User: Fold this.
Amino acid sequence: MIHIKRLQEDGADVMALVGEIDASSSIDLDLAIAKSVGEGFTKLLIDCSALEYISSAGLGVFMSYIEEFREKSIQMVLFGMNEKVANTFQILGLNELLKIAADKAEAKKMLA
Amino acid sequence: MRTKALTRLLFTLAVFTWLALVFTDLSILFSTSNGLKPEVATWLPRLILNIYIVILFYYYKFKIERDESLNFIDLLWRVFATGLISTVISLLLRLVETLLGGTKLTSHFLYIEFTYLINLGLMVSVLLCAFMAWKRLILYQKSKWLIRLWTFFEAGMILSLLYNSLSYPFVQQYYEYVLGLFVFVGLVLSGNMKWVAYLNFRQKWTGLLLLLLTIFYLFYIFITSGSLVPEDLLVSQRVIDHSVHIFILSLMIFVSMYSIFSFLVILFNLPTTSVFEQKLEEVVNFQRISQSIQTEQNEESVYNILLETSVSTVFADAAWLEINGSKESHRLYTYEISEKEARDIIDHLAKQQVRGLLDQNQDKTRNLSKHLSSLRGSRFRSILAYPIYVKGDNIGTLALLKELPEGFNKEMNKIVSTFANQAGISIENFRLMEEALQNERYKEELKIAKTVQKSLLPQQLEFDDHFDLVAFSESADEVGGDYYDSLRINEHQTALIIADVSGKGTTAAFHMSQMKGIFHSLAQGCTSPEDFMFRANQALIRCLERGSFISAIFFVIDTETKKVKYARAGHCPVLYYNSLTDKADYFKDKGVALGMVRNKSYKEFIQQNEFTYAPNDVMVLYTDGITEAKSVKGEQFGDDRLNQVLCEVKTLSPEQIQEHLINRLYAFSGTDNIDDDYTTMIVKFKERT
Assistant:
C-alpha cells in the first residue's frame, strides 16, 4: 500500500511517498506522476523518507519517465531514501540515471 | 398399467353386480306379485346394490382420484361427461316409453322397475364420479384438520352402507340424525373452494359452463327420480328405494351442494380474476429476473427483462432505464418513449433541483410526479423512479411513466422496487461470475507461463575440470522471470548468465525467453561481457515495454588464464569467497539494468570487471528473491545473512553449499509458500587434477 501526498513548494511539486510500492501500488505512483506532469509541473521532488520498500515494478515507473522527462526538460529529484531503498536503486544502477539527493534542501539545490 | 387393468376389472365387476341386482330384484318382485314366496332373500338386492356402490366407489377412486394428470377443468369435464351419458340414456328410455305409448309393456311393473334400476345405476355412477372429483378439488390445499374431516365423512358414508344393508330396526329412528350429520359435514367441506383461485379467466368460463350443465343434470335427477315410479305402484312391495338410502341421499345432497357452491364462487370470482392473474404474473416476472442471470449471457438482457416486466406489471405507458457510466457505457433503454423525450424529462428534473433522478439520501423510491407537472408539452402526468444498486453503488435508474395523474399506487410501487432490487442482485451475480471466469482464465494462463518458464531453464549446465557449477530455481505461485544458463564458448571459455526479468506472469516468461535467445545467440560472438551487455540492451529495448527491464550478470570464465571477466547490469552483486584471504565479500561495481537506457549511451553505464580466481574460491550468484525473502516477523534475509550462510559451508561442495543455503532460506521464511522466485547459481573453482 502506498499513500501519496502532494504539495507545492517554490514552484516544484513535492510528492511524498508513504508506505510500500509493489506491483499493484506502482500504478498509483505512475498515475500521480502523470497527473503532476499533466498539470504542467516541470520540477518534481519525490520525498522517499517514508518509503519503506520499492519493488522492481515501482522502479520501473521512475525508469519509464526518464526519457520523457529528458525530452520535455522536466526535472525530477528523489530524496531522503532510507538505506534499504537506496540500495535497491543502486543495485539496478538507477542512481546513475536519476537524480538522487540526501535531503530536501539538497534536492532543491539540484533543481537549479 | 396395473391401475388400468384394475379399473377395467372393477368396471366389469360393477356391470355384473348391476345385472345381479336387476335379476334378484325383478325375481323377487315377480314372485311377490304372483303371490309366491320369493326364492331369494329379500335383503339380497339391497346388499347387492351396496356392493355395486362400493365397487363403483373404488372404480372412480382409481379412475379419478389417483389420476395425477387431471387438472381442475378435466375433473369438471369428467363429471359433466358422465352426467351427459346418463342423461342421454335416461332420455332415450323416456323416448322409447313415449313411442310405445300406453302399451302393456310400458305400464308393466317389471318394465317400470327395470328402467328404475337403469336410472338408479346411472345416477349412482354420476354421483360417485362427482364425489371423487369434488374430493380432489376440496383437498387441493389440504390441512391436517381438513383431511381428518374428509376421512370421517368418507368412512361414515361407507359405514352407512352397512347400515342400509342390514337395516336394523333399532337404528331406524336415528335415520334423520345420521342424514343430518352427513349433510352438515358435507356443508362444512363444501366451504373449501381454494382451487377456484387458480383458474384463469378462460378456465373459469369453461368451469362455469360445465358446472351449470352438471347442475342441470342433477336437477333432472331430482325431478325424474321422484316421478320415476308412480307413488301408487307397488310401493309397498318395492325392495329398493333410494329415497331412504342414506348413502345415496347424502351423496346427492353433497354433490349438488358443492356444484352450486362452486358455480357461485367461480361466478363471483370472475371479476377479480385479472387481479389474481396479475399477482401470478408478478411472481413469474420476479422469477424471470432472478433466473435471467443463469440463462442470459449479458447484463443487457437483464436490463431489458427488468424494463419489460416492470412495465407490464404496473401497466406503465412508457418507461426508460438509464445506466450510469462513462460515455461508452452510459446507456438508455426506452419503452414507448423516444430518447429525446426521456432526455427532456431527465434534464427538466435536473433543472428542478432534483439531484439526479434520485437523491440517495432520500427514500429509495420517489414519486416525482409533482415535478413533472411543470414540464410543458409532455404527455406524461405520473412518474416513478427507482435506483438500481449493485454492491451499494447506484448503477442506474428505472423510471416508469403514465399519462394519467396519480397513476401509481402503493402496491405497484412496492413490486417494482422489489424488481429493481432483484435486478441489482442479478447483475451483481453476473459480474461476480464474470470475475470468477476471468480469474480462472488468469490462473490457466499462469499455469502455462509457469510451464514455459520451467522449460526455459537449462536441463544441464556446462561442466569443466576447473570448476563445479550448480544451480537451483524455485518459482513462486505467481510466475516470475528468473533465468540462468551456461554456454561453452570454446575449449577454455565458458559463458554464464543469471538474470531477473521485472514483472510477473506471462509477460515475464515471455521476456525471459527473449533473454534466453539473446544469450544463446550473442554469447558466442561477443568480444567481451561489456559488448554482450551493450548488444543485449540494443536488442531488448526494441521489445521491452516502457517500465520493464531485465537485470543480469554475464560472466566469461577463462580456464587458461584463470581469469573471470564479467559485467553486471543492475543485478544483485556477486558474493565471492576468496580462499586466500578466507573472506567472503560482495563485489562492488556499477552497471545499469538492461532496458533502462534506451539508446546507445548505454555503453557509458556498463562496466566490465575482471578478477583472477584461485582453487576453492566460491562464487554465489542469486536473484533478489533470496535477499528479500521475509521472515514471519517481516525481517529480510539480507546480504549479511547470505554472506554468513556461505561462510558456514565454504569448504563444502557446491551442491552442499546450495542445499545448506536453501534449507536456511526456508527455515528463515518459515513457510513453503515463497512469494518470489528463489534462484541461485554457485560456482566453485577447483584444483585441476
Remarks:
- Chain A touches chain B at residues 23, 30, 56-57, 59-61, 63-64, 66-67, 84, 91-94, 96-97 (CB under 8 Å).
- Residues 56-71 of chain A form the longest helix (16 residues).
- The mean pLDDT of chain A is 89.
- Chain A is about 45% helix and 35% strand.
